[in-house]
Amino acid sequence: MTWTLVLALSAIAYVFKVTGLVIVGGRQLPAVVDRCLGLIPAALVSALIVNSTLGGDDGMVFDARAIGVAAAILVAAKRAPLVVVIVTGAAVTALVRATGIAG
Amino acid sequence: MSDVQQEVSAEDRSLAMSCAVLGAAVGVFGIAFGVGSVAAGGSVAMTCVMSLLVFTGASQFSAVSVIAAGGSTVAALGGASLLAARNAVYGLAMSRTLQGPLLSRLVAAQITIDESTAMSTAQEHPQAARSAFWWTGASVYVFWNLGTLIGALAGNAIDPEQFGLDAAFPAGFVAMIIPHLRHRNGRRAAAIGAVACAVTMPFLPAGVPILCASVGVLVGVKKR
Fold it and tell me: Which residues of A fall within a CB distance of 8 Å from B181?
């Protein structure tokens, strides 16, 4: 690991982060662009759920996380607060691992 | 009047609590990052500066894992950059909420990440969306960097997976997506995003499937 890596990655990461915020900024956008931007969280957060539930070194894996997240979906559907949903997901996953049902 | 105020502050408290819990979960992964980075040959200073300046966990883990596996700096940068690219899309999504002086947007950019964007866009009111963004971003920033320092100094620490903490993130995102599923276009965009991610995961490098999920926003081209 080198300082070159650390500093180059810092610059690249910041450029990505700042682009959308500063370029669009307070500008008025066409309604269609506005509607599409409003849907970014729906599309990307659902992808993050899939990615962080099933992501592994080799593409996709089904492990204890899938069971924990299924439990989290159940309590979230019952309008449980965020903290409860997170704790349920983590606790069920840990339990499934501890009992050896799944890794 | 006082009822309204009480209601708002109760909401604020529960929001602040959620932001803190999320930050603490991230902190445990900060410890894991610190351990991994030092094990991959980074100094404590390099490791901490990376967390302070790069501040996007998936990219940092990716860079360190490539180096640990014997990869070059260029190879490490490539994968990490692909993972960081989604933050540009988050910036676009947050540009409505985070209007204000240039300086505040330049600061906001540094904490424009998965957690702050998801937490903010889950809020109904614009003021709550702004609070959620700053609180989540600040909480994650503090815990991630504190965790990194502890991990880098400790060398070996707890295994986050033993406590199911790797499932804490998808579980948190599940709670955060619920408000987006109330509208038909939101449900369609979410479904397309999930499918696009799942079908591309087996053969695209890590991080890219999340970018592919952006096609889901195209349902907004037609009015609802």
Answer: 42
Q: Which value does ipTM take for this structure?
A: 0.88
**Local structure of residue B125 (DSSP, 8 states):** S
**H or E segment and range at residue A69:** helix A64-77
Domain spans of chain A, in order of start = 1-29, 39-103
pLDDT tier at B68 (50, 70, 90 boundaries)? confident
| Residues near B186 by beta carbon (within 8 Å), at least 6 away in sequence | A39, A42, B180
The answer to whether the CB of B171 falls within 8 A of the CB of B54 is: no
Residue B3's pLDDT band (cuts 50, 70, 90): low
- Give the mean model confidence (pLDDT) for residues A4-17: 96
Reported pTM: 0.79
Identity of the residue in B49, B84, B217 whose CB atom sits nearest the CB atom of A12: B84
DSSP letter at B123 equals -
- Nearest to A36, CA basis, from A46, A26, A44, A25: A44
Contact B147, B28 (CB under 8 A): yes
Domain definitions of chain B by residue range: 2-160
Smallest Cβ–Cβ distance between B173 and the set A24, A38, A45 belongs to A45
